[in-house]
Write a structure and sequence with these properties.
Elements lengths: L2 H7 L2 H19 L4 H10 L5 H22 L1 H11 L15 H11 L8 E4 L9 E4 L1 H16 L9 E5 L6 H5 L4 E4 L4 E5 L5 H14 L3 E4 L1 H13 L10 E4 L6 H11 L3 E5 L8 E3 L5 E3 L4 E6 L8 E8 L10 E9 L12 E8 L3 E4 L3 E4 H6 L7 E10 L2 E8 L5 H15 L4 E6 L14 E3 L7
Parallel strand pairs: 3-5, 3-6, 6-7, 7-8, 17-20, 18-19
Antiparallel strand pairs: 1-2, 4-5, 8-9, 9-10, 10-14, 11-12, 12-13, 13-14, 15-16, 17-18
Helix pairs in contact: 3-7, 4-5, 9-10, 10-11
GO molecular function: ligase activity
Keywords: Ligase
Protein name: Phenylacetate-CoA ligase
């Protein structure tokens, strides 16, 4: 009998005990020998000047690149003759690593074995999941940085937390009984499924959250917003028990942030990384996004691979020693900021995390419509419980809409009018009412699904 069948057939308390055991084993890897050392390092480096941060970044790069050329077969074979011993100022002379190359040749990148390291799988929202290996030191380092970020808002492991991410934890019996969560009682984490976020079930999610009374919420912003929007629509007054909400893995729009903060009466703090091991971007107490220079190197490039203020993100990650990422085109885009921040964190600022490079709708008349503008287009449209926009043809877009009971003819007309302003008069706009829109295999929800992005100039 498979582990999944054993889990599915076990009593609830056994399932939850198994989750606690799984987490205990995972945490042993995350909080290993180097973790406390790294926590102290990042605590000591809070508030250091930008020149000092750049000096630390240079030192970490030298160590990382030396290990990369010493241990990774791919870099030994492809680049050792030309780039071994390269220094940070010359990094841009190295070729950019495309995602397809990493997927097709990933085992050549490995500098350690699965047995010696920690295997991580990406969500696979665009196809086959990518399997990368972290060294144990990588994993300790990454969680030290994450925990340093969350600790600034009072969080530590063991605080009662609601977690909404892509964990497949439910059984058919759970769904039949309207139970969309499982609890790790050892670490006080209740995991809520993001695969069942729809109007029919949101009342159960919300009732349970109010009963559980977590101090923190962490997870996908679309899932947290769905619950918040449901509560606002139904006039539910959520008790003021949440100290902070941490969002990750999806683009957080201003509309999402506003709805989440209004309903849960708690501040939202965003964070960016990726399953492959990208460097971190953390939000501070002033709600400014900071590139964490101690975690890696960020390049923002245009279509000609030249530096720009707004463009695709190419990263070199110091915590990817198991599967080294050097100038890796991660498939996301950001917009840099020239402002400074008074929070005490002197890392450079990001104005906006734009999300996946294909998270846009393209209009031949008006160009790209990015996710933030997409979110703004429906702020004054009533009756949308959930929405997804699909573009499979340059001159056509399809809207899938889950009607929450108020999407009438006036709503349809207003939505079409808003989108005519954005895409012009020539595109075909189709609005289709559907009973539900499913999440991806990763548990994430994609507001935009664009299959023609590669055809866009």
């Amino acid at each position: 009998m498979s582990y999944q069948k054993i889990y599915n057939n076990a009593p609830l308390f056994v399932q939850q005990t198994l989750i606690s055991i799984f987490n205990y084993l995972a945490y042993k890897k995350r909080y290993g020998a180097k973790y406390e050392e790294k926590r102290k390092e990042y605590l000591a480096n809070r508030g250091v000047s930008l020149p000092e941060l750049k000096k630390i970044q240079q030192q970490k790069f030298d160590t990382f690149i030396a290990l990369t050329f010493a241990n990774s077969p791919y870099y030994k074979k492809e680049y050792a003759d030309r780039f071994k011993g390269i220094k940070l100022p010359q990094l841009t002379t190295m070729p950019i690593l495309e995602k397809n190359t990493l997927k097709e040749r990933v085992t050549e990148f490995y500098s350690t074995s699965v047995a010696e390291g920690v295997l991580s799988k990406t969500g696979g929202t665009t196809g086959k999941s990518l399997e990368v290996i972290f060294t144990k030191d990588d994993m300790n380092d990454r969680f030290a940085m994450l925990d340093d970020f969350r600790a600034r808002f009072g969080y530590k492991l063991g605080k009662k937390t609601a977690w909404l991410s892509g964990k497949s934890i439910l059984t058919p019996k759970d769904v039949k009984n309207n139970r969309f969560w499982k609890t790790d009682n050892l670490y006080k984490v209740r995991y809520y499924s993001t695969f069942h976020i729809k109007d029919d079930f949101l009342g159960h999610y919300l009732d349970n959250l109010m009963q559980y009374k977590p101090e923190y919420i962490s997870g996908f912003p679309t899932a947290v917003m769905a619950i918040a929007s449901y509560g606002l629509q139904h006039g539910i007054d959520y008790p003021s028990s949440i100290k902070a909400i941490f969002t990750t893995s999806e683009t957080l729009t201003p509309t999402m942030r506003a709805a989440i903060q209004e309903f849960f009466k708690a501040p939202v703090y965003n964070q960016y990384s990726a399953s492959e091991g990208a460097p971190f971007i953390f939000e501070c107490k002033n709600h400014k996004l900071h590139m964490e220079l101690q975690s890696g190197i960020f390049e923002v490039l245009d279509g000609n691979d030249q530096p720009t203020q707004e463009g695709r993100l190419v990263v070199t990650s110091f915590t990817s020693n198991g599967t080294p990422l050097v100038r890796y085109d991660i498939g996301d885009a950001i917009k840099l900021s020239s402002e400074t921040c008074t929070c005490g964190n002197n890392n450079p600022l990001v104005e906006e995390i734009l999300g996946r490079t294909d998270d846009f709708i393209y209009s031949p008349e008006n160009g790209k419509i990015h996710l933030t503008n997409v979110a703004n287009s429906i702020k004054d449209v009533k009756g949308i419980g959930k929405m997804q926009i699909i573009q499979n043809h340059v001159n056509e877009i399809l809207f899938l809409v889950v009607d929450d009971g108020g999407f009438d003819a006036a709503s349809r007309k207003k939505m079409e009018s808003n989108w005519r302003e954005r895409v012009g008069d020539k595109m075909k706009i189709e609005i289709k009412i559907v009973p539900e829109i499913k999440s991806e295999k990763s548990g994430k929800f994609r507001i935009i699904k664009n299959t023609i992005y590669h055809l866009v100039p």
